[in-house]
């Protein structure tokens, strides 16, 4: 079309330049030239088509491979680092005379934390020692009483023998008519008195033996009275020892900013806390659908938000007995008709195996947990099989 327009324009110009000349015969117009398709464009279209097919196919294949080989590692960011918190209290009441700690101070097991005035407890221990000595003297007195009762029993036995012989002689003389009846009655009376005295002496032996716990040869410190005194003495010694309070484990002192010398504390009253750095674990809340192949003993990796470029090794210690909702103060009751199924979470406890990392961690830190279950979905899952392929 552009070529035809140019020819017409040229003819018009000729007519205008030579108006006196006769018009020339119109020139023949060439037919429009059809564009020949370029082989380069065909190759581009073919490449685009192949790309449009290959890219989705690659995505499908890659996604399928990831899905088939996936499921081995279960991850969650709903996890926190936990450390045992011990409430420190005094077993004895008294006034604080020594404080060797400060808030957020790192202590070792056996370090002295604080001390209570020991003087009242030293006095109590001295009294208990005196009570033990008195009890031991009492046992010696009981032994002397037993010996005396034994001697009285022997003496009473001799008196009975003598009275019995006197009575027998008087009865023999009375039978022969030599002795009077009154003399026989007197001899009988003396015999009865001797027997009564013997019975009294025998009861004295029983009483003295009972006072010695039924065993005259018992050791002094094995006697119940002495044992009670010794127990009281041990209690007094224990109370004196408890006036110095030591750290039960390695850890960090917390909430001790207001703990000062001169403060009066009662027995069993919580004073501050000790966060044990040696007892560290991770509490991770996994979805119930992630626990299919999870079990104690499996390896895991921990990433703490405080140290994003560092991983800590851990081991699955135990899986919780129930979901968090089951142990809440007000468990959910799904007895109504508007019930909606919600995936529940179950706490899983993981134990850190890297002992050096425990000192750098603090309770309550947010963590991300990845557990290696050792089991992936595998090819059987494609065909509807319930089992999964184990990755060795």
UniProtKB/TrEMBL annotation:
Signal peptide: none annotated. Its main location: other. It is found in: Cell envelope. The keyword Transmembrane helix applies. Pfam families: Beta-barrel_AAEA, BSH_RND. Keywords: Membrane, Transmembrane, Transmembrane helix. It comes from the Bacteria. Residues 85-275 form the Multidrug resistance protein MdtA-like barrel-sandwich hybrid domain. The chain crosses the membrane at residues 50-68. Residues 282-371 form the p-hydroxybenzoic acid efflux pump subunit AaeA-like beta-barrel domain. This is HlyD family secretion protein.
């Amino acid at each position: 079309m552009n070529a035809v327009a140019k020819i017409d324009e040229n003819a018009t110009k000729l007519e205008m330049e030579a108006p006196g000349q006769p018009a020339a015969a119109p020139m023949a117009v060439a037919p429009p030239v059809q564009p020949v398709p370029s082989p380069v464009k065909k190759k581009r279209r073919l490449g685009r088509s192949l790309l449009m097919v290959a890219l989705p196919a690659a995505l499908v294949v890659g996604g399928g491979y990831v899905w088939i080989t996936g499921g081995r590692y279960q991850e969650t960011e709903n996890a926190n680092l936990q450390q045992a918190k011990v409430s420190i209290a005094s077993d004895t009441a008294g006034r604080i005379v020594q404080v060797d700690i400060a808030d957020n101070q790192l202590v070792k097991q056996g370090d002295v934390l604080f001390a209570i005035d020991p003087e009242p407890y030293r006095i109590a221990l001295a009294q208990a020692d005196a009570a033990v000595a008195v009890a031991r003297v009492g046992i010696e007195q009981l032994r002397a009483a037993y010996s005396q009762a034994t001697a009285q029993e022997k003496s009473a036995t001799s008196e009975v023998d003598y009275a019995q012989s006197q009575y027998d002689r008087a009865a023999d003389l009375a039978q022969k008519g030599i002795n009077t009846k009154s003399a026989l009655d007197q001899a009988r009376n003396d015999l009865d008195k001797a027997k009564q005295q013997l019975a009294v002496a025998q009861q004295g032996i029983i009483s003295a033996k009972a006072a010695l716990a039924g065993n005259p040869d018992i050791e002094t410190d094995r006697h119940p009275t002495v044992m009670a005194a010794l127990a009281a003495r041990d209690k007094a010694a224990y109370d004196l020892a408890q006036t110095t309070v030591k750290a039960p484990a390695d850890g960090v002192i917390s909430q001790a900013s207001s703990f000062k010398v001169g403060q009066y504390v009662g027995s069993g009253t919580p004073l501050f806390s000790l966060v044990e750095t040696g007892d560290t674990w991770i509490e991770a809340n996994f979805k119930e659908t992630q626990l299919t192949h999870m079990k104690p003993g499996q390896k895991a990796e921990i990433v703490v938000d405080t140290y994003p470029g560092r991983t800590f090794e851990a081991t699955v210690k135990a899986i919780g007995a129930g979901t968090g909702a089951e142990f809440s103060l007000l468990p959910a009751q799904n007895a109504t008709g508007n019930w909606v199924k919600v995936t529940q979470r179950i706490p899983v406890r993981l134990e850190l195996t890297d002992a050096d990392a425990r000192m750098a961690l603090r309770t309550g830190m947010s963590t991300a947990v990845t557990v290696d279950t050792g089991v992936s979905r595998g090819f059987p899952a494609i065909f509807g099989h319930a089992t999964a392929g184990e990755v060795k």
